[in-house]
């Protein structure tokens, strides 16, 4: 099955980013294709490379880079939501990209499922 | 978009008061963009989401731009399927006459049935 993911909450403050990652990892392990993770609302904060979590904690930003580089998952941050929150190409994680809501619409159209993670 | 592609049924669920968080406003931004893609869009208002449509909102006191009028523009984007949960309205002492746009008031069960028909449901 081809799957798109919409992530609507930032990292650490909320479980959504962890659950979305765990879901993507499990779906890929089962042989499904995770096409893209689209970041919206505070979810765009997942796309900053400036985070520096303690060594003994998970690095959520690194997880997105891993999904992108190892599994070809597109990691996309909405431009309008990003501009509000100071996310741009200068702070973008490796493998991440700024895009528009039209891309989310394409993701919703071309995949078998769009799963939303957020409050 | 190519014509061979099926039209998808996409439902947006507004669940929150219009101010207090950004979910409703950014949800509306998403709906306006998706409206350009000629899919089968609908918007359902449940819980505090019904307040987004309330007439007479005055937001200058909270220093935030009001956007209730933008819902009136949805018709111009061919987003005509606006559904409101009957119990959510009643619980808040509201009627259809209190809302800025024409909507279809529905029972929760019917809204639930519509949700099961969708290809995509996005909550805000």
Q: Care to describe what's here?
A:
The complex is a heterodimer of chains A (119) and B (124). Chain A has 119 residues and is α/β, with parallel strands linked by helices. Chain A has one domain (2-117): 3-Layer(aba) Sandwich (Hypothetical Protein Ychn, Chain: A). Chain A is built from four helices and five strands. Chain A has helices at 16-29, 60-71, 79-84, 101-110; strands spanning 2-7, 33-39, 74-78, 96-99, 113-117. A five-stranded parallel sheet of chain A has the order 4-3-2-1-5, sandwiched between helices. In chain A, helix 1 links the parallel strand 1 (2-7) and strand 2 (33-39). In chain A, helix 1 (16-29) runs parallel beside helix 2 (60-71). Chain A is globular. The two termini of chain B are 26 Å apart. By secondary structure, chain B is of the alpha/beta class. Chain B has a five-stranded parallel sheet with strand order 4-3-2-1-5. Chain B has helices spanning 23-34, 68-73, 86-91, 108-117, and strands at 9-14, 40-45, 81-85, 104-106, 120-123. Chain B is globular. Chain B contains four helices and five strands. Chain B has a single domain (9-123), classed as DsrEFH-like (Hypothetical Protein Ychn, Chain: A, 3-Layer(aba) Sandwich), CATH 3.40.1260. The longest helix of chain B has 12 residues, at 23-34. Classes of the chains: A alpha/beta (119), B alpha/beta (124). The A-B interface holds A 6, 8, 40-41, 80-81, 100-102, 104-105, 108-109, 114, 116, 118-119 and B 1, 5, 8, 10, 22-23, 26, 29-30, 33-34, 36-37, 39, 119-123.
